[in-house]
Every structure is written in C-alpha cells, then in structure tokens.
Amino acid sequence: MRRMPAREVRPVESRPGEHHHTMSSLTGPPASGSPLIPAEELAAYGDLPCPAPHTAAELDALIGLLTPARSRIETVAVGHSRDPASRAAADAFTAAWKARGAKVLARVDWPESAASWLRPARRLTAEEPDAWVMAAAPLGFAQLARRLRHSTDWDPARTVAFAALRDSRLPALAGPDTLHGLRGATAEGGTWAVRHRWVTSYPPPGSTA
C-alpha cells in the first residue's frame, strides 16, 4: 500500500514493511534478560529518518490529544532524543503545557545508542505522571520503549508523540504490541495511532481529500 501524506488520508493504515524493509520477527521484549533489539534486527531496517522540525499545527494537535473534554490529565513526563529537532519540540511542548497551568513532572533525554536505556526508563516513570509525551527519533525510541515495557509500568496508551514517530516500521522494530495504543500528531495537524502492528493516520479536523 502506498503511504499518502496525512492530509490525504481518511484514514489510511500503513502496513509494516511498506518502506521495502524486511519485516521483523521479533516476539517482543523478553520476560527476563536484556530487551535490547538484536543487531541483526536493526540491520534489517537500514537508516531510519532523523526528526524534522515540528510545526505549530503539530503541537496544537498533540496538546489536543491530551486535553479532550473531561480530560483528567494534569501531569506529564516529557521524553526526547538529543537531536536539535526533538529538543526543540520538547521545549515547545513544555512551555505550552506549563502555560496551561499544568505540570511537567520530569524531562528526560536519551542517546540513540546506550547500554540498556534503564536509567531514562526509570526516570520517565518514577513520578507516576498522568501521561507521557515523546519527541524522538524512531530507533532510540524503539529501544527505550522495549526497556519501558520490560522494566516499568509505562503504558503506551497513555503516551502521545510528535510526528517523527509516525513510521510504519516502528511497531515491528519495537516488538509486537510494545507500542499498542500509542498516539501522536502529524505535521499537518492530524493524528495517528498504533494498533498492534499498524499505524493509522487521520486528517486534521474539517479537512477534505
């Protein structure tokens, strides 16, 4: 299936592997031992894209995911990669969230390559936030997500992310159902969601194909 820009989707499901990379045979983070992605799995996906700068529409849509009617989300933990675009997105969200009178309990960054990702995973979950916000590159986040599911009480269904993580390869790379329930915003102001092995994109409200 050909991926279409978010504004043309109503919705469209992005099949794993549609970027012509080998589908993952991961069975999810193991019950014990290291949850790190094996080197041969990483090699099958090649170079994943670096995050692009976020847009104002993207930030608005992401905040909208956290603030629907009767939302009880007040506290969040913000996680981000160390690249400039992810840092800037985390900065923008933090400022906007605090401007609403809400709280950021923790802000945590991580490298694209690490020994275990255990320290950032624990820091992100230590304060028991109502939700998590992620601004990240796909590869490092996939590793972190496996560690979060393996070693903490992190819930992807209580997590929203910027557009850089809307990649059809990410669910397979992270492992089956590791990211089930993760939602995010698109650069055009639409949204996307992970459902098991699929990434489904939705256009901005009021847009037409």
UniProtKB/TrEMBL annotation:
Q: Which Pfam families does the UniProt record give?
A: Peripla_BP_6
- The UniProt record lists the Leucine-binding protein domain at 51-186
What the entry lists under Gene3D superfamilies is as follows: 3.40.50.2300
Task: Give yes or no: UniProt keyword Nucleus.
Answer: no
Name the InterPro entries on file.
Leu-bd, Peripla_BP_I
Residue ranges for the region (Disordered) are 1-37
**Record's keyword terms, sorted:** Signal
Renumbered to this chain, the Basic and acidic residues biased-composition regions fall at 1-21
**Family that this chain belongs to:** Belongs to the leucine-binding protein family.
How is this protein named in the record?
Answer: Vegetative cell wall protein gp1 (Hydroxyproline-rich glycoprotein 1)
